[in-house]
Amino acid sequence: QAHGQTDSMMIRHVRLTTLCKTLLSTSTRLSSTQASTFKFSDIEIERTTSPAVRPPNDKLVFGKSFSDHMLQVKWDVDSGWHKPQIVPLQNLSMHPAATCLHYGVELFEGMKAYRCVDDKIRMYRPWKNAERMLNSAEKASLPMFDRDELIKCMAELIRVDQQWVPDSTKCSLYIRPTFIGTGASLGVHKADEALLFVMTGPVGPYFPTGAFNPVSLYADTENIRAWIGGAGDCKLGGNYGPTIRIQDMAQQKFGCQQVLWLYGEDHQVTEVGTMNLFCYWINESGEKELITAPLNGIILPGVTRDSILHLTRQWGEFKVSERVFTMAELVKAVNEERVIEMFGAGTASVVCPVNRLLYLNDSYHIPTMENGPELASRLYTELTDIQYGRVESEWMYDVC
């Protein structure tokens, strides 16, 4: 009887082993048929038969003009990535149960290309944006792709629409990569279909006040943009929608252009609306210091932020810090006249001076403009010199 049981167990073991091998083989075959990334070499191009006219540079309003074409790449769970396509700019068609419409399975990026002084077109640090997009995609459970293949496809899109890149050192071509879940399902789960698309359009200054005019900030003590363990370090649409009401209130009720987001009971300074925030002050140790909030998961790892930190550390002229600082520290420094400059930094605005801060019903004047602004102006000049090709830099990606 014991011998019979042993034979039976051996048969079951053989069957189980065979089943596991079959499943593994099937899984391997399925994964091998799925494209793990799209490839630039597969790109298909359909040109518009009705090209639009680019608005004059002095009439450009940020985000209101769009180039003739768009890049789109579909993905589905069975086939993986499809071939990338450049097609005429068009409306999207999707099922009303698409996951991006119900559960916010959506992310985007913001970057720029420039017509440089040598008439060549270049993108500014696209590797950083593509890497951040992959980080956001992982957070949203959207599929991965090869960073460099996306950059090459975007460069081709810009080449197709190169006449849309403004011939002005006050304007640029804004690039908006977007990634959405498109599968039809009211269940909350990973997307089984997705669409990555890229639009472009010529832009002038982000703020209506101009390229380098100061803005005022409303320090909000009631609402929180992001929190430790959340998704504040990702460019998800859900991070921005809930802030629009507060932004509107700051403008309409308090006369401030942007919201300064705070965190924690000690009102830690985080970021400003669509920008990272920098403060240039004399710290309590008597040192000149450029300070900005750390990358602790609350703030977006801005490309311009990274550029400013790199440049100022390269200069070696003052202390450069990434650390938590609070409104109490900032107000104390303002009252003691230790704040020299304050400015925001981002792709859209590059560097934007701050001249007023509203906090707990008190208004604080920030003497940024009275102090030059020496540092903000220098950074704006150095960054735009790189972007428009007046200074050669490895940060620029040649398009055409």
Structure, explained:
This protein is of the alpha+beta class and 400 residues long. The chain is built from eight helices and 19 strands. The chain is globular, with a radius of gyration of 25 Å. Mean pLDDT is 92; it is low at 22-32.
Task: Give a quick summary of the entry.
The chain is of the alpha+beta class and 400 residues long. The protein is built from eight helices and 19 strands.
What order do the helices and strands come in, and which of them pair?
Blueprint lengths: L1 H32 L10 E2 L23 E8 L3 E2 L3 E4 L10 H4 L3 E3 L2 E5 L5 E4 L1 H14 L7 H14 L11 E10 L11 E11 L11 E6 L23 H9 L5 E6 L4 E5 L2 E8 L5 E5 L10 H13 L3 E4 L4 H9 L3 E8 L3 E10 L2 E4 L8 H14 L8 E3 L2
Parallel strand pairs: 1-4, 10-11, 10-17, 14-15
Antiparallel strand pairs: 2-3, 2-4, 2-9, 5-8, 6-7, 6-8, 7-19, 8-9, 11-12, 12-13, 13-14, 13-16, 16-17, 17-18
Helix pairs in contact: 3-4
* Strand segment tally: 19
Helix content: 25-40%
Low-confidence stretches: 22-32
List the total number of helices: 8
The succession of helices and strands, N to C, reads HEEEEHEEEHHEEEHEEEEHEHEEEHE
Q: Structural class of the helices, strands and pairings?
A: alpha+beta
Strand content: 25-35%
Structural Rg:
25 Å
Distance between the termini: 81 Å
Characterize the overall form.
globular
The main β sheet shows up as:
10 strands, mixed
- Can you give the mean pLDDT? 92
